[in-house]
Every structure is written in C-alpha cells, then in structure tokens.
Amino acid sequence: MRARRGMTLLETMVALALTAIIIAAAAALMMAGSRIVHNTEHTADSHDASRFAGEAIMSMVRQAGAGAPGGIWVRQAGVPVRVSAIFGRDGTTGLGTTPNTPTANGSDDLWLVVPDRDYLGEPCVTPGAAVSVVRPGTGALQVTCTQSLKPTSLHLVSNMTSAALISNIVVTPPSPGVPGQVNYAEAGTVGFSNAPEKGGYQSGDLVYPVRLVHFFIGPHPTSGRPSLLRTEGRLVADALGRPFSEPAATPPFVVQENVEDLQVAFGFDASGQEDPSQYTWRHGLGSGFEPGLRTVRVSVVATGRNPRRNTQSTAVLADDKPITTENHVPPAAVAADGFYRSLYTRRLELPNLAAANL
C-alpha cells in the first residue's frame, strides 16, 4: 500500500501565497468598486441637489408679481415709492447674500412678491382669496367681504396693472347695508394707493394676501455647509436700502443642502418688440421699478455630501473645485476640495409682468 502523506512545507507556502494574492486582488477590486459607487452616488447627489434647488426657486418665480406688472407702491420713510415685484443683488461685486450683510461669497440673492396660493379662489369663502373694493379713493378700504383676508399677512391692493402693498391690516366685517372695511398702516400716508395718478383706489380693485420671499445662500444651521435658504420677509427696509428685510429672530428655512452658488440674470425687452432674442441681460437688479422686465434666468450650483476620492483613495480629485457660473468667476488659485459640482440653469418668462397678457 502507498504510504499516506500530507502537504509539504513548500506546497503549503505556495498555497498561502496564492491565497494571499487572491485575497489582495479581491480586496482591491472591492475597494475600487466601493470608490466608484461612492463617486457615482456623490455625482448623482449633486445633480439632485441642484435640480431640487432650482425648481424650488422657479416654482415661486412663476407666481411672482401677479397683479403688479406696473410695479408695487410701498411706503418708505413716510413716502410712497414704487418697487418691483422681482429684484436681486449681484454678489460678484463682493456683496454676498447672508441676509442683509455684505460678504464675499459671490452668490446673488432674489426677492419675490408672491400672492397667496388661493388668491384666485372663491371670494368670501376660500381663505386667502381676493375680495373686491367697492368705493374709490384713498385711505381705508371698503370691500365686499372680509372673510378671505388674513390679518397677520401683508396684502396687495391691485388693479391688475399696478398695486399697493399694505401692512398691519385691521378688518371690520360687513353688516346689513354696510360693506366690510380694511384699515392698514399706510392709510394715513397722503396719496398712497395703487394708482395715485387716478386719485386712489378704484371700484373693482382686488385685495389679497401676499408673501415676501427671499432666496439666498448661507450656512446650514447644523453642518455649516453652504445651502439654499429661504426667509419670509417683512415691509421694513434692509441695510442696503431695499424695501424688504427678514425678521432677525426668525431662522431661515433650508430649501436644499449643499448648494454653494445662486446666480440670477434679468432679461429686459428694451426694444419693445417682444422678441426674446433681442432681450438685454443684467446681473443684479435694484428694487426700484423699471418697465420691460420679461424673463429671469436662474443658475444653481450644488455639490454632493462628501468629497470624491482618487484611484488610490488617498486624496480628492484634482478637478473638483468651484466652477464659473454667469458672471461669477472663482479665483484661479482656488484649491480642489473633491466636491463635484452640478449646474442647473433654467430660464422662465414672466407672464405676470407682461400687462398685455392679462
């Protein structure tokens, strides 16, 4: 009979070596796969963040300026001033967008006057729906009803061409034979109305609640990462002399995390031909009313949550650094940080600011 024997030392060493090679190859393959999955998820994450942020802004832009293509009258320092329903600051001059505080983050901001979502609802029934003015003139308003109005909100009084923004309203419900009444803080300002050239409000004007919405880039309250933030404004001038500002004690709402840049361009129909190819474009728009604003182009840059890694997983990718958007050009010497950037750009015509479409 042949004698039984085990593996020799040499055979054992060869087997162990082959096993080690196989394990090392498998580990390297798993690490490479993990890195690819991580980087792919990071890229997809940045795509989603930029798209969600851009669409959140555009959903508000679509509604902005309803009833005020000819501007909005507000009271500043006791004087009626006509302002735009859409305006924003250009951050590339060094003025960033931390609320009302100059910074150097290079982003723009955007202010919008947005009607209550139910302002076209059933009058006197739907909360937030518009009610009609029944007596011309200035001062306190006499209206068909007051059930739809929201005493804690700002309101527009609109003739569907120009509007007046009123605050601190006090409503008196109608009684038999007597219309409802709306008093407000600006009622005592001489000549204040939505149509001072006509001697004041006119019968048939609409009164409905509105919001002052401010979009800007700022740090996330938890992570500190740049994010798209939104606040609800008030009718008080900010540090830059613009008519709206946000209450200091109210924290901003985080619209989307990991958004590092917001750029807004404003298109004007300077020729009056209503030809989009002939529009002139501006970066930054003051709050004072200017006719001819027809379109807005919004660009948003977002990143993923964690840096991407190179093939050795030892350093970030050298090409992952801030990108140029509109007229915002990052410094050439900026270091790579590993965050892939996704750019979302959308242009939207502003039908609410084109009086011919109403």
TrEMBL record:
GO terms for biological process: type IV pilus assembly. InterPro entries: N_methyl_site, PilW. This is Prepilin-type N-terminal cleavage/methylation domain-containing protein. It comes from Myxococcus llanfairpwllgwyngyllgogerychwyrndrobwllllantysiliogogogochensis.
